[in-house]
Automatic annotation (TrEMBL), chain A:
Alphabetical list of PANTHER family matching this protein: CELL CYCLE CONTROL PROTEIN 50, CELL CYCLE CONTROL PROTEIN 50A
Keyword set, alphabetical order: Cell membrane, Cytoplasmic vesicle, Disulfide bond, Glycoprotein, Golgi apparatus, Lipid transport, Membrane, Transmembrane, Transmembrane helix, Transport
Lineage: Eukaryota, Metazoa, Chordata, Craniata, Vertebrata
Residues passing through the membrane, by range: 50-76, 335-357
InterPro entries: CDC50/LEM3_fam (IPR005045)
Record protein name field: Cell cycle control protein
Superkingdom per UniProt: Eukaryota
């Protein structure tokens, strides 16, 4: 930083009034007057909004008047949505899955089965969406979130056999690359849920659960892709190893539907879309409305059959099964409606208060003169 | 400058014409290098420098942290992209700067100079000049290096230089070679010259040089008087030869151009503090989250390991927490975004351009626009509390104009109606072909009076044409150029010239004039010179008819006492006129004459000669002799000279003081002059409660005077308060109320009596910390330089400060440049206030450099001040626009920018903090990494930059109209720690809303196809979108001035956010880099959901509504002045009623003092002869010593026209070989009146002003400059190899005759340095008139009056 203030200009004597630019004769002739443009003179036409009572108070009222009806609408919509939730973790001794929950170990080959009875008080009219919910499961943990290889999941061949370092420690197993690698895939939710309706005469009717269409379209069609297309997955995945916790390899996830296998298995895709919060739900199945006249799920007794494979008690997690209908605004969401009503009311109220304050204490007069 | 430092030189040895010998010492060559880099070193050096910046290093550190996989919570590019951007911008700027430096270095290094090599002159580039070379300089050339003057074309080795580039003084100075070398003469002799110089090592003292020349076994002492320094220009000297002593970086010029001190603004400092605090805050958050992480890993994470094992090196939760701390440091670092510093620089740059572009600060006369020379101080312009102003050239134009006169009881030059039509300027040419065309006068009755031959009027102007010490130069017939030692005299003589009494020329014994077209010659019998005590000067002349008359002009106070009693009536009338003039701030002089009979003259002449010869108390005797004859005079009249203020000075000062800015005038001028100017620019008014003058000479007396002033203030303010409480409410109305300017015409009658502009009502008393803060009433303090020296001593500082700061106006006169800086430093140190120094001369450089902001007036006095300044423009009045408009806006914009910037980054970053509680404190980011990268540099940068550059709260003319609008800046109200915390709080609040609203909404929500919305990517997109929208709405609220650019930026940023997001989430990008763009499809699937938009709307409302309500309440209940102004503007616009209250109209009417005569009448009389006048001049003339007219000698380059008698003189030149003609100062000594000032101070101890004058009259660099003794002493015979220091007394014998004794006395000790001070002072006086005449006369005629070889007339 030896910058010195000295420069040639200092020795150039001829500074015809001009401060620094070595004023030659030519420069002297030319006027240095700055351009008279609105920009340079800072005279650009401008809108100068001012917070006056005339603008602010109506704004409050308008916000209030917009928010309250929206809130009411949301609230009503949300209340019309049917939602049923049941926790089948098996924490309590008397819960059906208690023993499964207790005795679980990853090494068990045989699934532990348990079933939970429940009753729907009201019928579910439209399409019903079946979710599984996990609590205290940190899918949003940094190390968890990054523990995947999107190239591999995109069907990249080299990534298949040589997954990203991010997948550690679920990258290689017995010298073979794990496909799909990483902690997310490794912890794939693998409980199987089946739903039966027990009609009035006690027979169990299987309720058909649709397992397609539960993933994002872009995930299913863009983001996830099997290596070498969907033909002969077994060959495509040769040389890879299944994730440690899995019972079956990735190309065998859905034996019933070859198009739902490998990386494009929708259950897998849904799981791979990590949740933002430690308590989350994921879409499991869809129960489609069959006829216009009958409700999708009539009120009555139901049985949920669970093949209990997924241990959560070790970290104090919970598992739930949720049934819900859907409106234009999605699932049941009382918060939004209440929040809107509250905010709208507060705005309205503020408007009134400000109006009073303004009338009582306004110190601005409306004249064009400035008071002393 | 990077050359290897040799061991510091002990002394320098230079042998002329011996390169081999000199090369042994490896002296620096004459090549200068101010550039920092070359092409190869640029990158490493520049990067190294940049990483010395703490911020950059910090980000580099972050970058390194991010490369550790266990820590990295963000991709490396989130840091490297902004960092690279910042580094690139800075590097480009540095490179451009350096390029220009290279260019200018090259230009300088390649200048040609003539070097004497082997007896031949060869052209060499400057850079090839070596120490020990002899180079030849020609007239008007720059001196290439520090040279020892060997010989010159002028007699006695004299040469003249102009040092404007070195110290800013435009006058010429004399240098003389050592006598032995001055005779070397031609090239042949010079090339065989092999003297060796031994001197001090290079240093930066411009005014000192000591060395010894060894030649032919003799020693000669060398002083600064023998040196030509690089940067000077040779003037009026045909050619000279010099020996290079110091070259290139060793020259005094380069040694002086050290690093410019880097100034920081208070906002800068505050910002740095805040950034440190934020770092602290960052660490705290990191620690909290790390503790959280430790707890979580222990309680949950360890159990969760079956799904999520710890990273391999991590084996316990504590280590995990440690890593998580660093991870959080990385993701939370955006609270101090790197873009902060860059954005601040960009904004300041924009403001600087606006200053450069401002037409209102363009001076069309000198074709100079304002220039912001530094771009880092703009917002500080909005916080100035103290202005330190130079007087001459800053407040005044340093042009005197003959404005009014009173002749025989009748006053002329009165402009009757200031509001009436502009009176016509008189045209003198038809009447008088010799008239000076630049002269302005408006009252034609005076001209009529001259024409009709009114005796008094004619005598009046005859006096003016005779009684002065002006020198004239007539280049061609009728083209007269006057060289007066003070501009006042020039103005008077010019006035006489235009009214038909033209002073043509003088010889030591005669004065030739043209009176009403007829030539006339007067014999000059005596000049009774001016001095500070006498405050008058007289001449005694004999006219063609043989009548002897004494003409006297002088300060009215002294002159009126010496009138003949019969003048009583006239005296009264004239006295009234004088009072009027004085009240208008004019400098007045009274004129009188006395007829002498031959006998009277003879008698007095005899006594005068006696007095003159006296060896002791000569001064007193002379004074007594003068006193004796200046009696019983007849009053002729009085003159009034306007020390022309620069345009708009009083108005500017009024506006600035309404803006609560205190203005101190620091001037080297005399007390009277300074006070006069104080009055004329309305800093001082007759309404002031009291004006204190501190002029004590000792510590005690100064202390006492200060104390007394303070006691008096307290006393007065108490009585005043008491009176006020007693019900003087009415006063308030008389003053212009709070906001300042006059309320229309309603108060016209009142305003007539009040000074213009009237003082503001005393500011509301600040909390009474002590008594002095509560002073009400208007006081002014005038302090003299020598008192100031005591007042600035450590133990007096506070005393001085408390007194001075209680005063409304402070004027320091006779201050040295150093004192100017000290005063500034004092205020800086004790008041913690922002100071601004404005000046135009080299003597202001020190204060310009030490003030927070330095402003240079470009134009008159060289460019030193401008070069040292931060801002420059050509008119003082532009200061109000610079401060009240640009400064205010800059401050406002910068504050708003910073508030918003911290807000938006806290809102952005703190979301991670809240998210930490839900993601196991794992340092997972809420947003996509690209969003984090781009948020600060793309999505939110432009709107806030646009606001920071273009925002205006009130239009420019309004802030001039209501100077009170400036106050928030001084009080630092817009951005301080409190405001900062409010911003931070708002940011944190926003972040809470931005996290928890989506959290609450989305956790259970699902898309309309049943897919839950609570996945990470949807959450990230929702939060990010909400954030961008909220901060955009917030900037929309903050922006008060929506230009097209703001619209483009705000909407463009929002648009770019969505565009870029959709692009980044697009399938095509994912297909290319599946690992990098895993958010594929998120934007689309998220933003199609109504719930997401409802969430965003909700979050926005919750964030903005409270802000809106709060702002509205603040505006409604506690509006700031700016709000009110804005509001009234709106109301006014609505009413569509243009109200002509523009400040311009109100003020411009009162263009100059003479027109707007609103000053209170009958005030204190501030009498005239307050010239920058120095005595001794008269003797120079009568002795004829200054009439060698080197100008004629110089005429070799100028036209050779010279009046006849000069030619005669030149022909006689041979006569006394002894006179070292050129050196004009000499005669003053020879003629016996010892160097005027130093002597008068010693002899006339009472004069308070004199000691300082020596310092201030001359520029700093020059005041101790030794003058070669020989030159001044008309050194006799000049024995070629006699020691220069030989006693000079004897030398005088041949010609000094009468003065011999006094001369001896004066040189008593005869150490060369002993009396040099005074000499140089005289020299200044002679050459130093910087008036307009000198300038117009051009450089050639600039030559110093020279000494004639004649012996004096008197003798």
């Amino acid at each position: 930083m030896m910058a010195s203030s000295y420069n040639a200009k200092e020795e150039d004597g001829h500074h015809s009034g001009a401060p620094a630019h070595g004023g030659a004769a030519a420069a002297a002739a030319k006027s240095k007057k700055p351009d008279n443009t609105a920009f340079k003179q800072q005279r650009l036409p401008a809108w100068q909004p001012i917070l006056t009572a005339g603008t602010v108070l109506p704004a409050f009222f308008v916000i209030g008047l917009i928010f309250i009806p929206i809130g009411i609408g949301l609230f009503v919509t949300s209340n019309n949505i049917r939602e049923f939730e049941i926790d089948y973790t098996g924490v309590d001794v008397d819960s059906p899955c208690y023993s499964c929950a207790r005795n679980f170990s990853w090494n068990n080959t045989a699934p532990c089965l348990c079933s939970v009875d429940f009753t729907l008080e009201q019928p579910f009219e439209s399409n019903v969406f079946m979710y599984y919910g996990l609590s205290n499961f940190y899918q949003n943990h940094r190390r968890y979130v990054k523990s995947r290889d999107d190239s591999q999941l995109y069907g990249d061949r080299s990534a298949l056999t040589n997954p990203s370092k991010e997948c550690e420690p679920y990258r290689m197993s017995d010298g073979q690359a794990i496909a799909p690698c990483g902690a997310i895939a490794n912890s794939l939710f693998n409980d199987t849920l089946e739903l039966y309706h027990i009609d009035s005469n006690g027979t169990r009717n299987t309720i058909p659960l649709v397992k397609k269409g539960i993933a994002w379209w872009t995930d299913k069609h863009v983001k996830f892709r099997n290596p070498g297309g969907n033909n002969n997955l077994t060959a495509a995945f040769r040389g890879t190893s299944k994730p440690v916790n899995w019972r079956k390899p990735v190309y065998d996830l859905d034996p019933s539907d070859p198009d739902n296998n490998g990386f494009i298995n929708e259950d897998f895709i849904v799981w791979m879309r990590t949740a933002a919060l430690p308590t989350f739900r994921k879409l499991y199945r869809i129960i489609q409305k069959k006829a216009v006249t009958t409700p999708t799920l009539p009120s009555g007794r139901y049985v949920l059959n669970i093949s209990y494979n997924y241990p959560v008690l070790s970290f104090d997690g919970r598992k739930r099964m949720i049934l819900s209908t859907i409106s234009w605004m999605g699932g049941k969401n009382p918060f939004l409606g209440i929040a809107y009503i509250t905010v709208g009311s507060i705005c309205f109220f503020l408007g009134v208060v400000l109006l009073i304050i303004h009338h009582k204490y306004d110190t601005r007069n409306n004249s064009a003169d400035i008071p002393n | 400058m990077f050359r290897k430092r040799l061991p510091p030189e002990e002394e320098r040895r230079v042998r002329a014409n011996d390169r081999e010998y000199n090369e042994k010492f490896q002296y620096a060559s004459n090549c200068i290098m101010t550039s920092k880099y070359n092409i190869i070193t640029f990158l490493p050096v520049n990067l190294f420098e940049q990483f010395q910046e703490v911020a950059n290093t910090y980000f580099l550190f972050l970058l390194i942290l991010q490369l550790i996989p266990q820590i990295s919570s963000l991709s490396w590019f989130t840091t490297i992209v902004p960092l690279a951007l910042v580094l690139t911008i800075t590097a480009v700027k540095d490179a451009t700067d350096d390029y220009f430096r290279h260019k200018s270095d090259n230009q300088v290094n390649n200048r040609q100079s003539q070097v004497l090599i082997r007896g031949l002159l060869q052209n060499e580039k400057w850079m090839n000049v070596r120490v020990g070379d002899i180079i030849k300089l020609e007239n008007n050339q720059f001196v290439a290096a520090d040279l020892l003057l060997l010989s010159s074309s002028e007699p006695h080795g004299l040469c003249y230089i102009e040092t404007a580039e070195l110290d800013g003084e435009t006058n010429m100075k004399v240098r003389q070679s050592v006598s032995v070398t001055s005779e070397l003469g031609d090239q042949n002799n010079l090339s065989s010259f092999n003297g060796e110089v031994v001197c001090e090592p290079p240093n930066n003292k411009l005014d000192r040089f000591c060395g010894t020349l060894y030649w032919r076994d003799k020693k000669y002492t060398l002083t600064n008087q023998n040196m030509l320094l690089r940067g000077c220009v040779l003037r009026n000297t045909e050619a000279c030869y010099g020996l290079v002593i110091f070259a290139g970086p060793d020259t005094k010029l380069m040694q002086n151009s050290g690093r410019t001190k880097f100034k920081r603004t208070s906002i800068d400092r505050l910002m740095n503090t805040l950034v440190l605090w934020i770092f602290g805050f960052l660490v705290c958050m990191g620690v909290i989250l790390a503790i959280g992480n430790a707890v979580w890993e222990r309680e949950v994470g360890s159990l969760f390991q079956s799904y999520l094992p710890w990273d391999p090196p991590v084996d316990n939760f504590l280590f995990n927490a440690f890593l998580s701390f660093w991870s959080y440091v990385i993701i939370l670092n955006t609270v101090v975004p790197i873009s902060l510093y860059v954005s601040v620089e960009v904004i300041r740059l924009g403001h600087s351009y606006f200053i450069n572009w401002d037409q209102h600060m363009f001076c069309s006369q000198c074709n100079t626009a304002a220039e912001a020379r530094t771009t880092t101080l703009n917002e500080e312009l909005g916080q100035v509390e103290y202005i330190f102003s130079d007087k001459t050239g800053t407040l005044t134009q340093n042009i005197m104009s003959f404005n009014k006169c009173s002749i025989n009881g009748q006053t002329f030059g009165e402009i009757t109606d200031p509001l009436g039509p502009q009176p016509k300027r008189l045209d003198f040419t038809p009447f008088n072909p010799l008239a000076d065309l630049d002269f302005c006068f408006y009252d034609d009755t005076l001209l009529e009076s001259v024409k009709v031959g009114d005796l008094h009027t004619q005598e009046f102007f005859r006096l003016l044409s005779l009684c002065h010490t002006v020198m004239s130069e007539e280049k061609s017939e009728g083209e007269l150029v006057y060289k007066a030692q003070s501009p006042d005299e020039g103005a008077l003589v010019t006035a006489a010239r235009n009214f038909g009494f033209v002073f043509r020329s003088r010889t030591p014994g005669t004065i030739s004039t043209t009176e009403m077209g007829r030539p006339a010659t007067y014999t000059l019998l005596a000049i009774l010179d001016f001095n500070n005590i006498r405050k008058r000067m007289s001449v005694i002349v004999r006219n063609a008819e043989g009548r002897i008359r004494l003409y006297c002009k002088g300060a009215d106070t002294v002159l009126l006492e010496r009138l003949h009693p019969c003048n009583q009536e006239l005296t009264n009338i004239t006295s009234d006129h004088l009072n009027e003039y004085a009240a208008d701030g004019l400098r007045t002089l009274a004129l009188a004459y006395r007829d002498l009979t031959e006998d009277e003259w003879e008698a007095w002449s005899e006594s005068h000669r006696c007095a003159d010869k006296a060896t002791d108390c000569r001064e007193d005797r002379l004074a007594a002799a003068y006193e004796q004859i200046e009696q019983d005079m007849m009053l002729l009249g009085a003159t009034a000279i306007e020390d022309k203020l620069q345009e708009g000075v009083p108005e500017t000062i009024a506006v600035l003081s309404l803006a609560n800015i205190k203005i101190w005038v620091l001037t080297g001028d005399k007390q009277e002059t300074a006070v006069n100017i104080g009055y004329s620019c309305k800093m001082l008014t007759d309404d002031m409660t009291e004006v204190f003058i501190i002029s004590g000479h000792t510590v005690q007396s100064v202390r006492q005077e200060l104390r007394r002033a303070r006691e008096r203030m307290i006393e007065l303010s108490q009585t005043r308060d008491a009176v006020k409480e007693a019900g003087m409410e009415g006063w308030g109305e008389a003053y212009f109320t709070g906001n300042g300017l006059r309320e229309g015409d309603g108060t016209g009658g009142r305003a007539k009596q009040l000074p213009c502009p009237p003082p503001p009502p005393p500011p509301p008393p600040p909390p009474p910390s002590n008594l002095m803060d509560n002073i009400s009433g208007e006081f002014a303090l005038i302090i003299n330089g020598h008192s100031l020296a005591h007042a600035l001593e450590a133990d007096m500082e506070t005393e001085f400060l408390s007194t001075a700061c209680a005063c409304k106006a402070v004027i320091c006169c006779r201050v040295t440049p150093l004192q100017k800086a000290q005063v500034v430093e004092l205020i800086k140190k004790h008041k913690k206030a922002v100071t601004l120094a404005i000046g135009d001369g080299a003597n202001d450089v020190s204060m310009i450099k030490s003030a927070h902001i330095g402003v240079g007036i470009s134009g008159q006095e060289g460019i030193q001040a401008v070069l040292a300044s931060d801002y420059s423009f050509s008119q003082f009045r532009f200061l109000q626009r610079l401060l009240l408009v640009h400064g205010r806006w800059s401050y406002l914009r910068m504050c708003r920018f910073l508030c918003y910037f911290f807000y938006k980054n806290f809102a952005f970053t703190m979301v991670h903090f809240w998210f930490g509680f839900f993601c196991g404190f794992s340092a997972q980011t809420v947003y996509d990494q690209y969003f984090i990268t781009l948020y600060n540099i793309v999505y939110t940068s432009l709107p806030v930059l646009a606001m920071g550059i273009f925002d205006q709260d009130v239009p420019d003319h309004r802030s001039l109209e209501y100077p009170k609008l400036y106050e928030p800046g001084q009080l630092n109200l817009l951005f301080n720690k409190k405001e900062f915390f409010i911003c931070i709080a708002q940011g944190i609040y926003t972040s809470v809303v931005l996290f928890f609203v989506p959290y609450a909404v989305l956790s259970d929500a699902s898309q309309s196809n049943g897919v839950p919305l609570a996945d990470y990517q949807t959450f990230a997109v929702t939060t990010a979108t909400a954030l961008v929208i909220v901060v955009s709405v917030q900037i929309a609220l903050d922006t008060g001035f929506w230009t097209v650019i703001n619209h483009v930026c705000v909407w463009g940023s929002l648009g770019s956010y969505f565009t870029i997001m959709f692009a980044l989430h697009s399938q095509s990008l994912f297909r290319i880099f599946p690992n990098q763009f895993h958010f594929v499809g998120s934007a689309q699937s998220t933003l199609l959901q109504p719930v997401v938009w409802l969430t965003i709307a909700l979050a926005t409302a919750i964030c903005i509504v409270p802000v809106l309500a709060f702002r509205f309440l603040k505006l409604d209940l506690k509006p700031q002045l700016s709000d009110t102004v804005r509001y009234t503007q709106l109301v006014r616009q609505k009413k569509r009623k243009p109200v002509g209250r523009s400040v311009g109209g109100a003020w411009r009417g009162t263009g100059s003092v003479s027109e707007g005569r609103l000053g209170a009448r009958g005030g204190s009389r501030r009498s005239g002869y307050a010239f920058a006048h120095q005595e001794g001049f008269g003797e120079l003339i009568t002795s004829g010593k200054n009439m060698r007219l080197s100008s004629m000698a110089l005429a070799s380059f100028a036209s050779r026209h010279s009046s006849g008698w000069i030619d005669t003189l030149r022909r006689k030149k041979h006569t006394p070989p002894s006179t070292s003609g050129e050196c004009s100062p000499a005669p003053s000594c020879v003629s016996g009146s010892v160097p005027p000032l130093s002597n008068s101070s010693s002899v006339l101890g009472g004069s308070q002003d004199t000691p300082i004058e020596q310092e201030t009259g001359t520029a700093p660099a020059q005041n101790t400059q030794p003058v070669p003794s020989s030159s001044s002493q008309t050194p006799p015979a000049i024995v070629p190899d006699s020691e220069a220091a030989a006693p000079q007394g004897q030398a005088q014998a041949p010609n000094a005759g009468v003065f011999n004794s006094s001369a001896v006395k004066c040189h008593g000790g005869d150490s060369p340095g002993g009396w040099t001070l005074s000499l140089s002072t005289v020299q200044e006086a002679l050459f130093g008139w910087k008036g307009i005449a000198a300038r117009t006369s051009g450089s050639n005629s600039h030559g110093p009056p020279s000494v004639a070889k004649e012996t004096s007339q008197i003798e």
